[in-house]
Fold:
Amino acid sequence: MGRRFSPLLQQQGWGRLRPQEVSSTNKYELMLMLNPAIEEGRQPEILDRLSKTVEKGKGKVAQVDDWGKRKLAYEIAGQSEGLYSVVTFTSEPETLAEVERVLRITDDVMRFQTVRLKD
Structure:
């Protein structure tokens, strides 16, 4: 037959793992491509906003790797080059969703791609 649990364990928030015991922090790598025609101080400003959003969501930015200007395989929005940056960070999925939402509404972001890294 099935297992029987104590009535105390069937209360909201109780069970094998309590909600506060479940950690869903993941490691992510985000590649960001910015419009090369942006103002000089705008790229650090976008990366700083990304870092602050991650830290606000109780995540941590491990590394920011600036690749500089690279030629694109095909034109995007009339641009043949892009400014690339790779950001490695740990966060919860909700924080990642907020980071991606902010990047989508930022005008100078041409493309971005996030992948979850194995632990």
Remarks:
- The first strand starts at residue 26 and ends at 34.
- Residues 22-117 form a domain with the Alpha-Beta Plaits fold (CATH 3.30.70.60).
- Helices lie at 42-56, 93-105.
- The CA atoms of residues 2 and 40 lie 65 Å apart.
